[in-house]
Structures are given as structure tokens and as C-alpha cells.
Design brief:
The protein is about 10% helix and about 30% strand. The chain is an alpha+beta fold and about 130 residues long. It holds the Pfam family SelR.
Length: about 130
């Protein structure tokens, strides 16, 4: 997709976060307190990124996951902006900024916390059985 096509597809907030590496305000995104089961996909390209099975409440105000659905679906990039060292998480398929990964996640799940902006995600909910 060209940059112009991406601008037409995404909201201005999504574009700011996903293409300009911005951040949404904590506790403001639609998925930070979501508990439905399903698959979280990239809002830009539809790549599967995170399963609800790895989502946990980190208390940070952003959706947090212990693992991506497949490590090959995300790219981890050193980020030394804002006077600190962090690791940026990008969608490997389209290059969109998603958030950052930290080493303060649940120890019983590998210790990682993928802190992801809600605007970068689309949740495909599992169908409920009747």
C-alpha cells in the first residue's frame, strides 16, 4: 500500500500511532480492558499478532500480552528515543508501529510484556457456542 492509501484507510489517530510511532493515552483505547476471546490482528494489514490467551492485565492502561501468536509476525527494533532504551514492536508484514516489549511481564509466562496500542489492533472475536 502507498502512504496515501494507508492515510485513507486509517483514522488520524491510527496513522499517528502506526506510521509516526506515536502512542495513545493510557486507559483510553478500546482493548485495554477487553476480556473477549479471539485473535488480535494488525489494524492496517490484518496480520495475526496476538491471541487473547496471552493477554493479561498489566495495570498500565494498554493491552498487554505475554507473547505474539508467532514471533515471525512481529519485528523487534531497538528504540533509543525519549532518552531511554526500549524495544519497539512492529508488524512484520506492513511495518506499522504497534508498541513496545518490556521484561516486566508475568514470570510464569516468560517474563515479557508486549505493551500494544489499542488503535493498532482489530479483535476478531471467537464465535460463542450455543
Amino acid at each position: 500500500m502507498t502512504d496515501e492509501e494507508i492515510k485513507q484507510k486509517l483514522t488520524s489517530e491510527q496513522y499517528h500511532v502506526m506510521r509516526d510511532s506515536g502512542t495513545e493515552a493510557p486507559f483510553s483505547g478500546r482493548y485495554w480492558d477487553e476480556h473477549a476471546k479471539g485473535m488480535y490482528k494488525c489494524a492496517n494489514c490484518g496480520q495475526e499478532l496476538f491471541s487473547s490467551n496471552t493477554k493479561f492485565d498489566s495495570g498500565t492502561g494498554w493491552p498487554s500480552f505475554s507473547d505474539p501468536v508467532n514471533l515471525e509476525n512481529v519485528e523487534l527494533v531497538p528504540d533509543n528515543s525519549l532518552g531511554m532504551h526500549r524495544t519497539e514492536v512492529r508488524c512484520k508484514k506492513c511495518g506499522s508501529h504497534l508498541g513496545h516489549v518490556f521484561d516486566d511481564g508475568p514470570a510464569d509466562k516468560g517474563g515479557k510484556r508486549y505493551c500494544i496500542n489499542s488503535v493498532c489492533l482489530e479483535l476478531k472475536k471467537e464465535k460463542e457456542e450455543k
